[in-house]
Amino acid sequence: MNKTFKKPPWYNGGFYFTTLEGSLRTPFLIRWPNHIPAGSVTNEIVHITDVMPTLADVAGYKVPTDRKIDGVNQMPLFLGETTTSAREGFPVYNGDNMFAYKWRNFKSHYYKHESMFDKPVKHNFPRIHDLLRDQKELYGISGGNGTTGAQNLTWILPAVTKQVLKFQATLKDEPPIILGTPEPYTPKK
Q1: DSSP assignments along 2-16, one per residue
Q2: Which residues 6+ apart lie within 8 Å of 33 measured at CB?
Q3: What is the value of pTM for the model shown?
């Protein structure tokens, strides 16, 4: 079997088990009459980990305080009380490795991995995409010949790196739970 991924004509910029937008960006619909404005639409970042703290808030529960919770309460965004997400970005993992980091409208890729059938290849230098100009993540921020129009945004790498280091510090404070850890899990003090 040929393991090299060939982009079909209908390729939209990513499949499941990759860090491309076609894998990460999914529709999320909420209907709550008299609470969430009907017909409202946003392109703000909401992560799957935000669902638990958001629903906990709606149900009147508090999230645990004895451990770090990755999600944030997005109810103000959903209710239309704010137009911005409570999060600016998130790490994108494949297994135990951070393959990318999405921050605002930018994504920094640390591995090339266009299909779950491809072997991931670590970039020598992060490849940064402006997702407003390059939704399929084809060119990178220095795509040459002005293909993305974002060649002068050299400030992005330090900004994203700051977010990555901040996230990695949380992993030192509270290491990830090892796969197979029995429930109920009690964090170390």
Answers
A1: -------TT--S--T
A2: none
A3: 0.82
